[in-house]
Specification:
The chain has helices at residues 10-15, 38-58, 87-91, 113-126, 174-177, and strands at residues 22-26, 29-33, 61-65, 70-73, 76-78, 82-86, 103-107, 132-136, 141-145, 153-155, 158-161, 170-173. With 181 residues, the protein is α+β, with helices and mostly antiparallel strands. It has a single domain (36-177), classed as tt1808, chain A.
């Protein structure tokens, strides 16, 4: 006799009790990861701070960090570590209206690497997120994915991002990003 498989929806995930883990769903598959490490959170904070400063100058979007509640379909709900939405969407302060991501960033952890690298990356490509950064603290690099590519560009020194409407690109020095506290 086979095991019953539950096909999760975003509403089912929203209804799960809070247990300190991150619960997401992509195409009905429940993704559960434990709380991230302190180093993971430090990198997330550094990226969000740099994006925040850049976006105060460029005024085209606003950066948020997880936890969040981003959903494009009934069977998908994700919490990118860091993401940027257009300024009008951000001003609503309503997750349900933040469906256009200008940038999604996931910082790899041992417990999230498979989901971030494959499952969530493919979802971000499917929904047309123009740029997806996969930050790898162990290798000290950033994979840059766009919707149409099969393989990423890998940044080892500096990663740049210039969304539509920005006058200048953001340049993030990876030596600074990965510098110990």
């Amino acid at each position: 006799m086979g095991m019953a498989v539950t096909y999760y929806t975003a509403d089912m995930v929203r209804a799960l009790p809070s247990d300190g883990q991150r619960n997401e769903v992509v195409h009905g598959e429940l993704l559960v990861t434990p709380a991230p490490s302190a180093w993971h959170q430090e990198i997330v904070a550094r990226i969000c701070a740099r994006l925040g400063a850049y976006l105060r100058e460029q005024t085209i979007g606003h950066a948020f960090m997880a936890p969040a509640d981003i959903s494009w379909t009934d069977d998908s709900l994700v919490q990118p570590d860091v993401f940027v939405v257009p300024l009008p969407d951000a001003r609503t302060l309503d997750w349900a209206r933040m469906r256009t991501l200008l940038l999604a960033v996931e910082v790899l952890s041992p417990s999230s690497a498979r989901a971030d690298r494959f499952t969530k990356r493919r979802l971000y490509q499917e929904v047309g997120v123009p740029t997806y950064w996969l930050v790898d603290p162990e290798r000290r690099c950033v994979e840059v994915w766009t919707p149409a590519v099969t393989f990423p560009t890998v940044a080892w020194d500096t990663v740049a991002w210039q969304p539509a409407g920005a006058q200048v690109p953001l340049r993030l020095e990876l030596g600074e990003l990965f510098q110990p506290i």
